[in-house]
């Protein structure tokens, strides 16, 4: 067999590949177009809607490191708020400051609000920026304040230092995940 005898088969194979790959042109063989269309039925509208919802939910999930950092920071904030609410007098004695229940209550409520914001970033990507803008400065401020407490109240110093480190981790993980999320779009250009 000569090389020219295989050309029609090669063209047919290339045409089949093009049509099945979605690159077929209107000049393609009508039987081939009909067969390809029959092999790829249009999905029911309910199924297409379900797939779209699943893809949307997946697209709004935060990166795992962001979620872990946000949940850990939320837990640290809840521990601090719980300590302020339940052991405020004991903490004030160990820090050497007067007990102020009103200020401790308001501080605990604000810390719980920050914990909710951090936890929201663990659930949805859209809340990541808000959590970084609100929780990171609070965590860093508490972390810097905690360094001075090591000689007075080690438990508080450790908690505040952990909060500061988690705030930095949340900021870094969020920034990294945003850069990684845009990287494929930059590479595609």
Written description of the protein model:
By secondary structure, this protein is an all-alpha fold. The chain folds into two domains: 3-56, no CATH class; 62-188. The protein contains eight helices and no strands. It has helices spanning 7-20, 30-39, 45-59, 64-86, 88-95, 101-123, 128-147, 154-188. Helix 4 (64-86) runs antiparallel to helix 6 (101-123) and helix 4 (64-86) packs antiparallel against helix 8 (154-188). The longest helix has 35 residues, at 154-188. The chain crosses the membrane at residues 65-87, 99-119, 126-147, 153-177. Residues 1-14 have a biased composition (Basic and acidic residues).
Q: Which secondary structure elements does this structure contain, and how are they paired or packed?
A:
Blueprint: H1 7-20, H2 30-39, H3 45-59, H4 64-86, H5 88-95, H6 101-123, H7 128-147, H8 154-188
Helix pairs in contact: 4-6, 4-8, 6-7, 7-8
């Amino acid at each position: 067999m000569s090389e020219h005898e295989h050309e029609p088969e090669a063209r047919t194979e290339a045409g089949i590949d093009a049509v099945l790959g979605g690159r077929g042109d209107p000049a393609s063989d009508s039987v081939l177009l009909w067969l390809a269309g029959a092999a790829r039925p249009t999905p029911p509208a309910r199924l297409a809607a379900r797939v779209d919802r699943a893809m949307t939910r997946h697209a709004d999930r935060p990166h795992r490191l962001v979620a872990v950092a946000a949940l850990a920071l939320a837990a640290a904030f809840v521990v601090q708020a719980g300590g302020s609410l339940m052991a405020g007098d004991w903490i004030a004695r160990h820090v050497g400051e007067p007990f102020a229940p009103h200020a401790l209550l308001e501080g605990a409520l604000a810390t719980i609000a920050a914990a909710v914001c951090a936890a929201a970033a663990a659930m949805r990507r859209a809340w990541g920026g808000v959590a970084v803008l609100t929780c990171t400065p609070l965590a860093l401020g508490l972390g810097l304040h905690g360094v001075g407490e090591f000689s007075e109240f080690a438990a508080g110093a450790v908690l505040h230092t952990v909060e500061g480190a988690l705030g930095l981790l949340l900021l870094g993980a969020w920034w990294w995940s945003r850069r990684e999320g845009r990287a494929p779009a930059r590479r595609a250009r």
